[in-house]
Design a protein that fits this description.
This is Cell cycle checkpoint protein RAD17. One of its GO terms (cellular component) is nucleus. By secondary structure, this protein is mainly alpha-helical. The protein has four domains: 82 residues, no CATH class; 73 residues, no CATH class; 117 residues; 46 residues. It is 56% helix and 1% strand. Helix 2 links the parallel strand 1 and strand 2.
Length: 423
């Protein structure tokens, strides 16, 4: 039995629709109702190549469809999602628009409207669902009525599932040790019925680099609380806790630290040299932790997770704390870290050195260390190459001087030599 993926089935369906259109089920030819093809569920693509297949398939459908076609794509929450599927769906929408499709956007439905719809469905289907559970599903749907109805169906299949609001919405990408800390950042509804509230890397970077804070400290401190000096005090954030944002960005410690290294100075005032020094100091500490985590990667995965989480927290909080005098708010272009290009070039050079050494050894498996090859083997090889090039150039100049001589000069030289020999 041959396996056919959903993507293959979708491609075959689109090919049939493009060639033959849809056959109307109406037997009366006089009253022919108009037909609209609605594609409400696209096949899931695993990898870039599969996504490009789906993209080409939909482009062909847009350019050569025989019937009006509507493709339903939900983008609610995709701006704050670090999932590749969300980014690919956005790219897919832009591609379809460039191919000639028209985009019709609908605003999210309010929670009250969703609750009324869910309550009406429960009455018609004779489902006994509490009002609190309906409210929970409505708030978790993010304005998507189809998502809310699907969640209600799943809940009715297992009505005995207990909705624990206090321990819900934990982030699986964070270490287990931080679960208790993250519970207090819960959005107030169960992740079982909620959307993926992750952030893109650039969305998280924007929060950290722009460093938006309240204009005044509205938090009242207890008289017995520990007071920080004015030099070290900061206004409250206009965002969630940095650790929560890191977890929503799937805790990408190394990319976040590298991007902060590359772009943070653009967000610091030109006169704030002390701020730049403080930020660089914290980023240096984060690099030290990340370097330590690389050495323990293959030995202790739990320690490596803790080190990466700590490094990301140090880098982010160091940028937020050190940038006490931010530059005026304006649009900034986020640059790709130059460190990545340096590391890529370094890795390429190391592989090239090992390859050349392997060729020189005639396929022998005994390699020298990369440092030995770089400091001893390569300089000698270049020196030998320069010597060979110099010898070739010397011989070439002699040959050219000989070829450039005229016949008279040759005869004069010969005659002079003869005269000397005769004398």
């Amino acid at each position: 039995m041959n396996y056919t993926s959903k993507l293959d089935e979708f491609e075959n369906f689109v090919e049939r629709v493009r060639k033959y259109g849809l056959i109307s089920s109406s037997l009366n030819g006089n009253s022919k109702s108009s037909i609209i093809l609605v594609i409400d569920d696209l096949p899931v693509t695993n990898g870039r190549s599969a996504f490009e297949r789906l993209q080409r398939c939909l482009i062909l459908l847009v350019r050569s469809t025989r019937v009006p076609t509507a493709i339903l794509v939900t983008d609610c929450g995709n701006a704050d999602s670090s999932d590749l599927t969300a980014r690919w769906l956005e790219e897919l929408q832009l591609t379809l628009e460039s191919a000639g499709a028209s985009k019709v956007a609908f605003n999210p439905i309010t929670n009250n409207s969703i609750k009324k719809t869910l309550s009406r469905i429960c009455r018609q289907e004779l489902c006994n669902v509490a009002a609190e559970e309906i409210d929970l599903i409505a708030r978790a749907s993010g304005g998507d009525i189809r998502h809310a109805i699907t969640s209600l169906q799943l809940f009715c299949l297992k009505p005995n599932v207990e909705l624990d609001l206090s321990s819900s919405n934990s982030t699986p990408s964070c270490p287990k040790e931080n679960t208790n800390v993250l519970n207090e950042f819960s959005g107030g509804f169960s992740s079982q019925y909620g959307r993926d509230e992750t952030l893109t890397l650039f969305h998280a970077l924007g929060k950290f680099l722009h460093n938006k804070r309240d204009t005044e400290n509205v938090v009242s401190l207890d008289q017995n609380a520990f007071r920080v000096g004015e030099k070290f005090s900061r206004l409250p954030f206009k965002m969630d806790s940095p650790e929560k944002i890191l977890c929503q960005a799937h805790g990408q410690s190394r990319p976040i630290t590298d991007f902060l290294h590359e772009n943070v100075l653009d967000f610091v005032s030109d006169e704030a040299m002390d701020d730049a020094w403080a930020v660089a100091s914290y980023l240096g500490d984060a690099d030290l932790l990340l370097a330590t985590s690389r050495r323990t990667l293959n030995r202790h995965s739990e320690i490596e997770n803790v080190l990466q989480s700590a490094a990301a927290s140090v880098a982010v909080r160091g940028v937020l704390y050190g940038n006490f005098h931010p530059s005026p708010s304006r649009w900034h272009a986020i640059r790709k870290p130059k460190l990545w290009q340096i590391e890529q070039s370094s890795s390429h050079n190391q592989n090239e050195m090992l390859r050349q050494r392997f060729m020189e050894d005639g396929g022998s498996s005994s390699f020298s260390e990369v440092s030995v090859i770089a400091t001893e083997y390569r300089p000698v090889l270049k020196w030998v190459g320069y010597r060979k090039a110099g010898d070739v150039e010397t011989h070439g100049s002699e040959d050219e001087s000989v070829k450039g001589m005229s016949i008279d000069e040759e005869e004069s030289e010969i005659s002079d030599d003869d005269d000397i020999e005769d004398w």
